[in-house]
Amino acid sequence: MSRAYLSYNNIVSSLGFDSTSVVNQISDEVSGLVPVHNIEILDRPFYASILSQEALNAVFNDLPTLSSQTRLEKMMIVSLEKIIKTSGVELTNRVGLIISTTKGNIDTLDEDSKFPEKRAYLDALGLEIQEYFGFTQTPIIVSNACVSGVLALVVAKRMIAQGSFDHIFVVAGDMVTKFIISGFNSFQALSDEPCRPYCKTRSGINIGEVAASVLMTKDKNLLAEESVEIVGGSASNDANHISGPSRTGEGLFRSITSALKEANLSPKKIGYISAHGTATMYNDEMEAIAFNRAGLAEIPLNSLKGYFGHTLGASGLLETIIGMHSLHRNLLFASKGFQELGVSQPLNIIKKTTPKELHTFLKTASGFGGSNTAAVFRKI
Amino acid sequence: MKKIAYIAKYCHIKGNTVSLDQDILFKNTSGDLGDFMKSAYKHFAIEYPKFFKMDRLSKLTFLAAEVLLGHPDTSKEDWNLAVVLSNRASSLDTDRKYHESISDADNFYPSPSVFVYTLPNICIGEISIRHKLRSENSFFIFNAFNPGFLKDYSENLLHTDKADEVLCGWVDVDKNSYEAFLYLVSSTGKSVHTEQQLTKLYRTP
Question: Which domain of life is it from (chain B) (predicted)?
Fold first, then answer.
């Protein structure tokens, strides 16, 4: 069984186009959430983190062009291009590609889209990314609601452990679209203000868009200074409700317990938790129950949704990358937007960015369909 | 020493026919997919009103799982059966329906009960609720049935003790075409769990 290390990484977001710039902004508690007035998307203003099309095109237009790319493909290509180049990994048949997304090119369903509807198929998106870089292997596309990003990492770990690949590039992305905003709005889950995970006066979620990517490798000679090892991972279902979180946090509790067991770590050994924390009433309450059941109530915890909003299929990867940098810098990042605890069980929310010697962190996510995923990462 | 995995049984739903292993259990060629699934629901004497709230992908997955696993076994309190499903069209069947509901400003009617099905893994949630599976689960997208990947991934779950058995396969609904091929990977069975065998079973009958 090979060990699996997370190495070179990139974030393309409203807070910057590389991980270091983005993490610097988070370290300074700068949020990418802004008010959006766009009646094409929603009949009232809402908060979101939106990638500048001009900034994206400026970077993308410097790259070689093979065919006409959609907005999401551009985001993913810009993100992935940087780490493929930096890593120097040759794309042989020992190199895999995993893509995480919930809605992919869903905007190509719009009548005014200049792309045909066939681009809305996720395998078409996968083929575009594969062909752009010349990956020889069929991309593995993970589409498992809001846990997709962290689940993609767990899947990559398993593929490396069993010897299917030596290296896997994992890329994740989703966009802010009318489709998504109207959907969350129909659930009355959308907040009119910047979101405040775990807070007493939290009022729902914001949506954001990013692309993020990481190299996972078994090769210790290919590490970045912020590299971590993924030492455990699990994805368990609630078997309770397709859109409402479990009242007992069952699936999340089981995911965490299984991931810790695989990592051979007790809850006390976790340095901090990068939680999901969408700032909806039910989700945050469910997480508090699950973390308490798992013996993690005292572990410092943040949700990064106050910086980016919920970036859907990218959030798990985005937040894991920030976790890698958190460990490397020995810094606990503030859970932005939090004021006063508003869940029924104790949690140790990180109120301001604080230095702390860190060795491990737990990343969790939960989503529609009763899905939950947990993964444990350790400094090398 | 890795234990050998077997394909315990498999179910096809395609061409308005439901089969389990070699045997055709139900056939009804009149009507569309919706009519067919409703008649199959009746034929198999399933009593689960939530079925009628599901989208077509979830209904199809639900029926295939019901045929393969049987009606829920209440004695199996903590069945560690992982669920690993895949398809090509993701949830596009419902995505198109939801998209239509938000495309016209004068006829704007987004519904949470439609929106929730705009994710392919909701069908995993539905069968997890039905069969009380609080186990490993994931949904993958490929351009075609990918027996090599599914075999490696499900055997990894078995070999690392993440699961005792795996419900695995392909469930796709896209406009007028649909197909379900689900199989149970277990420690016993008639055929060894190999890529070649999966390809063969997928193509038959």
Answer: Bacteria
